[in-house]
Specification:
This protein has 538 residues and is α+β, with helices and mostly antiparallel strands. It folds into three domains: 168 residues, FAD/NAD(P)-binding domain, CATH 3.50.50.60; 210 residues, 2-Layer Sandwich (D-Amino Acid Oxidase, Chain A, domain 2); 116 residues, Orthogonal Bundle (Helicase, Ruva Protein, domain 3), CATH 1.10.8.870. 39% of the residues lie in helices and 22% in strands. It has 18 helices and 18 strands. Strands 3, 4, 5, 6, 11, 12, 13, 14, 15 and 16 form a ten-stranded mixed sheet that branches. Strands 1, 2, 7, 8, 9, 10, 17 and 18 form an eight-stranded mixed sheet that branches. A hairpin with a 2-residue loop joins β13 and β14. α2 packs parallel to α7, α14 crosses α17 and α15 crosses α17. The radius of gyration is 23 Å and the shape is globular. The relative contact order is 0.15.
Length: 538
């Protein structure tokens, strides 16, 4: 099995140049950057790739309209640079992960004439900052045009709208694809492997003690440098290095709710420019559904955070104010919560005003921590981190400079955005399934479709394009080790439709158990774990 082979390489006693802890956006990006330079890299993730923060985003690739407003109002260069970097990286992500990302038009509705020039000028400035990476020009919309672009908008009092463009992507599969691309570049990667202790030699970090989260087996791994890229959990790893280390990170929580596709047109999103507490909300089309988010409240750092009823009511209340459709709690098909890592002063009261910038820290004993940041700038964060690691760990990289600016992510190199027709003709797939497989797997889609010919062509559940062949593919080639790995991250099913996921779980279990050789005890454990995740928090 693929994971067994990877674990064997982690256990064979070799010394790696870098051990990267954390399999989210940051860790996978760092592993890819380092491996692409020719360094010997190991990447371990305690749970699944992108199980935490990195699969709970609003699915936008953006510079940050809100950050730009704060930069202008307060003449804040940190926020300004964050937006500029974000817009540059947005363009690179859209090019390097073409199958997992796309340009998305967004409408900002305006109900006061005084807001029209202000918002329009701000979004035009947003265009200007993107420079050569500009993906579309903002323009004013008349009331009639705004309602045509987003028919669900509340018409009463609407004065005008502004149309602008940002990027959209599939975050969980992006993280997985980064990890698999790093593996192609020579990295050794594994999910469900936890760091339980930091090892030192003569007072300097020399590696870590690892534990297989599924079997409980422990072993030691040697590395010339250790990078802590664990998102909201960076302080946990820092405390392994130094129990007295002061915390450098706080967290906020944000939830998203999923509604039926009738709440958002397939090609246009909605940006609600200001809520009752001065935040920004989005209603976006995603995977033939509508995603609404997000909230932003101070939170404790915990795995699998629970969505709060107050957060759900907050989103429904604001959507109701901007929609001519009645939105009820019964319309929600799924809801999930995620933590945002914020490098901040713990005394700060308003987490919405904290910069999502990143910070690189070295400990006295040699632990390198990368904290903060956001999905859009994962590549820039990785570049800065690996540059720093080469210097402080005195590593000799065959390619000393970053190689990822033009490096296609797995699935993107030969992606054909019209490739679904070939899948239909060759594998006799339904049009919606073919389109879904093409945009999800890119130039690897035919490999998934081939497995459908082995008796795995059936849909997992009615009204969704996810098919059984994906389960087999995830277990064989994508390091899926738990049922929820498949339902929530290899496919988007659990993030879109909780009830459909419950119906599909039994068949996913059967396919994975057969492919991975699970005994009845493991199957029972998986059933219990999957039920817990789907009933509580993914």
């Amino acid at each position: 099995m693929k994971r067994d082979n990877n674990l064997a390489q982690l256990k064979n006693g070799q010394t790696f140049d870098l051990l990267v802890i954390g399999g989210g956006a940051t860790g996978c990006g760092v592993a890819l950057d380092a491996a692409a330079r020719g360094l010997k890299v190991a990447l371990v993730e305690k749970n699944d790739f992108a199980e935490g923060t990195s699969s709970r985003s609003t699915k936008l690739v953006h510079g940050g309209v809100r950050y730009l407003e704060m930069a202008v109002k307060k003449l804040d260069r940190v926020q300004y640079n964050l937006v500029k970097d974000g817009l540059h990286e947005r363009g690179l992500l859209l090019k390097n992960a073409r199958h997992l990302s796309n340009r998305l038009a967004l409408v900002t509705p305006l109900y006061k004439w005084i807001d029209v020039p202000y918002v329009f000028a701000g979004l035009k400035f947003y265009d200007v900052l993107s420079g050569k990476q500009n993906i579309g020009h903002s323009r004013l919309l008349s009331r009639k045009e705004a309602l045509k672009r987003f028919p669900g908008l509340k018409a009463e009092g609407l004065k005008a709208g502004v149309l602008y463009y940002d990027g959209q992507f599939h975050d969980a599969r992006m993280a997985l694809s980064l990890a698999l691309t790093a593996e192609e570049q020579g990295a050794v990667i594994s999910n469900h492997v936890a760091v339980v202790a930091i090892l030192k030699n003569d007072g300097k970090i020399s590696g870590a003690e690892l534990e297989d989260s599924l079997s409980g087996e422990r072993w030691q791994i040697k590395a010339r440098g250790v990078i802590n890229a664990t998102g909201p959990f960076v302080d946990n790893i820092r405390s392994m290095d130094n129990p007295q280390a002061a915390k450098i990170l706080s967290a906020s929580t944000g939830i998203h709710i999923i509604l039926d596709k009738r709440f958002a047109p397939p090609d246009t999103g909605l940006m609600i420019p200001e809520t009752e507490d001065g935040r920004v909300l989005f209603v976006l089309p995603w995977e033939d559904h509508a995603i609404v988010g997000t909230t932003d409240e101070p939170a404790e750092v915990t795995e699998h955070p629970l969505p709060l009823e107050s957060e759900i009511e907050y989103l429904l209340r604001h959507v109701g104010r901007y929609f001519n459709l009645k939105v009820e709690k019964s319309d929600i098909k799924a809801v999930w919560s995620g933590l945002r890592p914020l490098v901040s002063d713990p005394k700060a009261a308003d987490t919405a005003k904290l910069a999502r910038d990143h910070v690189i820290e070295d400990s006295e004993d040699g632990l390198l921590t990368i904290a903060g940041g956001k999905w859009t700038t994962y590549r820039k964060m990785a570049l800065d981190t690996v540059d720093h690691a080469i210097k402080v760990f005195q590593l000799s990289a065959p390619k000393p400079t970053c190689q990822t600016e033009q490096l296609p992510i797995l699935g993107s190199a030969n992606y054909n955005d019209q490739g679904e027709q070939e899948l239909i003709n060759t594998y006799n797939l339904a049009p919606d399934i073919a389109a879904y497989l093409n945009r999800t797997y890119g130039d690897q889609a035919a490999k998934v479709a081939t497995l459908s010919l082995e008796g795995y062509a059936a849909r997992l559940v009615d009204n969704h394009p996810v098919i059984e062949a994906e389960i087999l593919y995830a277990a064989r080639f994508e390091l899926a080790e738990r049922v929820i790995d498949v339902l929530a991250r290899r496919t988007p099913l659990a993030l879109l439709d909780t009830e459909a996921s419950k119906l599909a779980a039994t068949r996913v279990l059967e396919i994975m158990a057969n492919e991975l050789g699970w005994d009845q005890k493991r199957m029972d454990e998986e059933t219990q774990w999957t039920t817990q995740r789907l009933n509580n928090a993914l």
